[in-house]
């Protein structure tokens, strides 16, 4: 959770910023970290703080909540989603796919999703909200990418199973994690504690991952497994 949360005693929230390149064949990260750490922390903070040893953690607004709180459940799912996309990206890089820069950008945006979730509106000050507000532009980007993939893909006439090579299968796995993340974020958005565009982004992201999985399989010439009713 450290990427999403500022612990008041340490001020170690990391806000991720991205520069988006269209040079996909690289394993270099496109995200840079801007740290809001104190001078003391910059001398070499330890990765462990022991502040969560009793089963509580802090939101960006400074609230102490139990680790099973719905906020931290959503943050964990979002973090897992980014990890799943990172794994899929590695497989796609191995095959020379040209859309990996999109996966880089998505991972950066998921950091912003987490920052917004970690800032419950009910306890947020204006300074919190201004730093973690989620923009709608990434949703439009996903829709553009989906439409571009779809123009090249054959029509979907059957149910397909996660398959089509390692990259495709990994993207399908990321899609299922995305659906779980969306389910955990939905009640937070409905309660007014997070921006509605966060839920919209996750909803569109699962569509993107499904389409990207099909696109990866097509580009690799891999056969997707078609659902057949067992006899």
TrEMBL record:
<keyword id="KW-0067">ATP-binding</keyword>
<dbReference type="Pfam" id="PF01923">
    <property type="entry name" value="Cob_adeno_trans"/>
</dbReference>
<keyword id="KW-0547">Nucleotide-binding</keyword>
<comment type="subunit">
    <text>Homotrimer.</text>
</comment>
<dbReference type="InterPro" id="IPR029499">
    <property type="entry name" value="PduO-typ"/>
</dbReference>
<feature type="domain" description="Cobalamin adenosyltransferase-like">
    <location>
        <begin position="47"/>
        <end position="216"/>
    </location>
</feature>
<dbReference type="GO" id="GO:0009235">
    <property type="term" value="P:cobalamin metabolic process"/>
</dbReference>
<comment type="similarity">
    <text>Belongs to the Cob(I)alamin adenosyltransferase family.</text>
</comment>
<comment type="function">
    <text>Converts cob(I)alamin to adenosylcobalamin (adenosylcob(III)alamin), a coenzyme for methylmalonyl-CoA mutase, therefore participates in the final step of the vitamin B12 conversion. Generates adenosylcobalamin (AdoCbl) and directly delivers the cofactor to MUT in a transfer that is stimulated by ATP-binding to MMAB and gated by MMAA.</text>
</comment>
<dbReference type="InterPro" id="IPR016030">
    <property type="entry name" value="CblAdoTrfase-like"/>
</dbReference>
<keyword id="KW-0808">Transferase</keyword>
<dbReference type="GO" id="GO:0008817">
    <property type="term" value="F:corrinoid adenosyltransferase activity"/>
</dbReference>
<dbReference type="InterPro" id="IPR036451">
    <property type="entry name" value="CblAdoTrfase-like_sf"/>
</dbReference>
<protein>
    <recommendedName>
        <fullName>Corrinoid adenosyltransferase MMAB</fullName>
    </recommendedName>
</protein>
<dbReference type="GO" id="GO:0005524">
    <property type="term" value="F:ATP binding"/>
</dbReference>
